[in-house]
Amino acid sequence: MKTIEFKRLIEVDTSDITLLMNHKLVRKQMPLLTNIIFNEKTCEKFIDIKESLWIKHGYGPWAFVIDGRFAGWGGLQSENGEADLAMVLHPDFWGIGKTLYKEIIRRAFMR
User: Fold this and answer.
1) CATH number at residue 102
2) Are 16 and 70 in contact (CB under 8 A)?
3) Are the C-beta atoms of 30 and 88 separated by less than 8 Å?
4) b or e along 29-48 (b: 16 or more beta carbons within 10 Å of the residue's beta carbon)?
């Protein structure tokens, strides 16, 4: 059984996020990254934007840490006034998305 932790993006090393967002297979799945150089400065701005979602809406994306390794990020984000579910995983963790999805939904509708 894998240990899965949901953390805020500000709690993980920016170098892990930068590596993920520059991974060739991940970039292939994210057309919004096509013309973006995702470096340390870009990463800090990215984290600030994602953190502001938590402040403004009370929800936002998490960092997924699986067995102590940063696996990716995702969660609910406000998109044009609606909650959008995003998930970006390192290819080493492709296949665990359904488990993460179920936990995101569970957390979203906890009472």
Assistant:
1) 3.40.630.30
2) yes
3) yes
4) eeeebeeeebeeebbeebbe
Q: Across the strands, what pairs with 82?
A: 79
Q: Name the domain count of the chain.
A: 1
pLDDT tens figures, 91-104? 999 999 999 999 99
Q: What is the DSSP string of 4-55?
A: EEEEEGGGS-HHHHHHHHH-HHHHHH-GGGTT----HHHHHHHHHHHHHHHH
Rounded to an integer, what distance in angstroms lies between the CA atom of residue 98 and that of residue 42? 29
Domain interval for residue 25: 4-108
Per-residue pLDDT, 111: 56
